[in-house]
Amino acid sequence: MATEETRAMLPGIFYRKPSPDEPPYKKEGDPVARGDVIGLIEVMKSFHEVCSEVDGTIIAFKIDNAEPITPGTIVAEVET
Amino acid sequence: MSISKILIANRGEIAVRIIRAAQENGLKTVQVYSEADKSSLAVQMADETVEIGPAAAQKSYLSVGAILDAARSSGSDAVHPGYGFLAENAEFADAVEAAGLAFIGPSGEVIRRMGDKAAARQAAKDAGVPIIPGSDSVFEDFEKAEGLAKEIGFPVMIKATAGGGGRGIRIANDEKEFSRLAPQASAEAKAAFGDGGLYLEKVVEDARHVEVQILGDGGNFVHFFERECSLQRRRQKVWEEAPCTALSPETRNALCSSAVALAAAVSYRGAGTIEYLFDDRSGEFYFIEMNTRIQVEHPITECITGVDLLAEMIRVGGGKKLSFVQSDIGMRGHSIEVRINAEDPANNFMPFPGVVRDLKVPGGPGVRFDHFLYPGYQIPPFYDSLLGKLIVHAENRDKAITRLKRAVSELSIGEVKTTKPLFLALTEEPDVRAGQFHTKWLEPWLEQNSSKFAQQEGGPS
Description:
The complex is a heterodimer. In chain A, 0% of the residues lie in helices and 49% in strands. By secondary structure, chain A is an all-beta fold. Chain A has one domain (3-79): CATH 2.40.50.100. In chain A, strand 4 and strand 5 (46-51) form a beta hairpin. In chain B, the strands form four sheets. An eight-stranded antiparallel beta sheet of chain B has the order 13-12-9-10-11-14-18-17, with helices on both faces. A five-stranded parallel beta sheet of chain B has the order 3-2-1-4-5. A three-stranded antiparallel beta sheet of chain B has the order 7-6-8, with helices on one face. The A-B interface holds A 10-13, 42-46, 66-68, 71 and B 36, 54-56, 58-59, 342-343, 350-351, 353, 381-385, 460.
């Protein structure tokens, strides 16, 4: 068991949901596979997906929905 | 109502532009800002500033409550919405007026009417403005609509009355496609906007985008001639010019008169733009929509007419009459604006927020650069990528393009990747030099010419 950190590669606003009226991509405790979308980053009105780089279980989101982030910010921790 | 202190409910280059107009007219300014805009140029220039919330626009520049609180606490007596954000939000305009302040723009009722595509089309038709052949109202019966589509002639465009940003739009080339696409467009619009109402329009192929600038004081209405904005990427304008050299004097007169007729029909107050498709081959023009705000590309109209549109907009927003009549407004020469965006054209226009380490601004005769940059400024990643608008004015179109090329070459924003190389390439393109383009010209050209847009290395920071 190890904890992997998923980091933002871009600056912008982090969203956990595909749109305001939809449920989050993933909740804490959900299993994830490598390549699964776990969030979105809005950079200058364009949207970029944040994907998990590992298989495992999401143990924590470190950034709330609609919060600003900078490149390198840890957005989630995944237990592998 | 006479106004003395304007709250600017916007940011970026348009906030700077509004502050300049207010200052020249002896008005105090209040700039609202998000946490991410503390160090912005507009905040440095305004007489007073009020922080209204976090970086995300939803919680700051789109928060009606936060902006109204700022207006009350600062003792403002007017609100200028700029463009984007709340500029065409009828509830915001109503709330500003209900709070006893002047909204620098039309009434909420007019914003609401012109913002509803079917209602706007009806208003245009009633005012005698040519509209694109199509259904006069929203349809729900797909079979009946198919019959109408046959009458209009394929291809037809299926549009959602509540649509926007290209969503809920489909083009059907024949009956079979129509019966498949109409329910899709309706479902998409229902999901995105909560309203699945559809209407039909004839597709006018290879048309130009031409628009007329108007101003009204509620009782008097004037136009400031037209702009051509056919060079677009993903329905976003990138290069605009005034006048449109493809129009004959007779067509220009008919076009501009129709815009004034529509403004008068809705008793318009403020600055507005009526957009049209213009078909070179038939010489026909058709109403698309009316934008009830000041537009990004207003400076090219200011260049050819010599009128400060922002100052006049503020004047009528404060309840005064227009300071001129139609015969006072002439046009001279040719003007072009290009949008300098923080986007990398060599990498599919990827946004490029960064630090402005070094800034060299173009100057000389006939050059204007409306922007909000300064050396050391960290461009926030949270908002639109527009950094500035480079505007040139010269005695004719050919000289304006030559001047544009010279001015674009002088511009340097350090390591920030921008759309500058795109414009250098466009000034050398024979079709652009000849004015031979339409709204579908730029995208295929970009595909073929992306190798011309490489810029020096530098990472986002």
